[in-house]
Amino acid sequence: MPIFKSLEELHHMLVNKEISCVELTRSYLDYIDSADSRVKAFLTVTADSALMKAAKVDKKIAGGESLGSLEGLPMAMKDNMCTEGIPTTCGSRILENFNPPYDATVTERLKASGAVLLGKLNMDEFAMGSSTENSGYHPTANPWDLESVPGGSSGGSAACVAAREVPFALGSDTGGSIRQPAAFCGVVGLKPTYGAVSRYGLVAFASSLDQIGPLTTNVRDNALVLNAIAGHDPKDSTSVPFVKPDYTRFLENDVKGLKIGIPDEYFASGLNSDVAEVIQKAIRTFESLGAEIERCSLPHTEFAMPAYYIIAPAECSSNLARYDGVRYGYRAEADDMIEMFKKTREKGFGQEVKRRIMLGTYALSSGYYDAYYLKAQKVRTLIKQDFDRAFAKYDVLLSPTAPTTAYKIGEKSDPLAMYMGDVYTIPVNLAGLPAISVPAGFVDGMPVGMQLISKHFEEGMLYKAAYAFEQNTEYYHQVPALLKEVR
Ligand code: GLN
């Protein structure tokens, strides 16, 4: 079955003509047809355009042309990245009929790399949530236990990679939305440095925090995808002109002398003791590989959550003001314009999105701005300084990605309890740092993710550490029960 192969293996299969690109694409589409009725990761499947593109790749192969490393390989994207002429709903009813007139930069770059888009993936509405239950369409299931959530907001991206419906997917991460679902679904998820991957054409949630990144089954594949999507983009004013390395050159399975800091605050109360044990074991693995481990402190960690829940809703209330039924998306019938705005937003947005808009509007309103927004920005600086101090000593910081494993669909109804699941991921977004979640073990058959954090633009360091860990543990060979039937 091609679905168990890595990107590199699939590439060689195409180059050596063991399988044609049309056959490969078809086998994935057929598999999606059967598996996704249970996983429900996809909102749109783009079978026709995928097969057309595959035929073009086959022509290239037949003509003896060389293939790029992602050329002809299947993938899917979270439904908040614009794809020209292909629905981009953001998981929201308000954008149900929205077909963007242009491609996001990541879409353009993946197209240029020759990767084949198989479809668009489910998510929490406008990326607000941690379980994909806030999707305006349907929840997605965790392939390890179909009754559990896949995490969120990039739940569709993590679930479809875990179920091997595609070898890679793109997600977006504002407060943990790549890393937490990657942890819950037992896959590798990277949130790049803020400014490393263009946000042009990514539908904005909280613009100063949003970042796109790859989800894959293994670390090498992740680096290959980052190679294709990272780099400066003049269309995004927050994109940074930096020298992009070949990220695969950091995959050397050697962490001798690597300095790893273990922040005390990430192992405090709230962390499930079984998850803690898995992470402690991971730390010992690094120790046995020759890394230097030391406890450290990021003293302002407890203020990250409250600061995030001011800053992110504030930016969201401003970004989501554009959905008024006038230019695109859903429009409600009404007698006058103001009534139309009101009804469109009332019917088009789900509960969580409305909650965030209200929180943000309140925090920004005159008289409260200094008390909330300005103060939150000051806290943000303190959090960044915590990390700066830690990185003066350490190459990498290590923590759990989430305090628990995946919970059951419908189990968490209190929004605050849901918010607390992001305690270890949110500080990283506030500081704009890169971080990766790597499979680190299991608790009662459900995957646990380990988070590694590094300095700005040092994704290579994350790959180096993650790869050594992966190569010396057996976790990434394990697959969900769902797949045992296929194998
Ligand atoms: N779960 C967090 C939230 O609801 C983070 C979401 C994200 O990273 N997009 O805001």
UniProtKB/TrEMBL annotation:
Q: Kind of enzyme, top EC level?
A: ligase
Q: Show where the Amidase domain sits.
A: 23-462
Q: Please give the InterPro entries that the UniProt record associates with this protein.
A: Amidase, Amidase_CS, Amidase_dom, AS_sf, GatA
Domain of life, per the record? Bacteria
The reaction(s) catalysed by this protein are: L-glutamyl-tRNA(Gln) + L-glutamine + ATP + H2O = L-glutaminyl-tRNA(Gln) + L-glutamate + ADP + phosphate + H(+)
What PANTHER family does the database record attribute to this sequence? GLUTAMYL-TRNA(GLN) AMIDOTRANSFERASE SUBUNIT A, TRANSAMIDASE
Assembly and partners are described as: Heterotrimer of A, B and C subunits.
Q: What is this protein called?
A: Glutamyl-tRNA(Gln) amidotransferase subunit A
Q: State the species of origin.
A: Dehalobacter restrictus
Its lineage reads: Bacteria, Bacillati, Bacillota, Clostridia, Eubacteriales
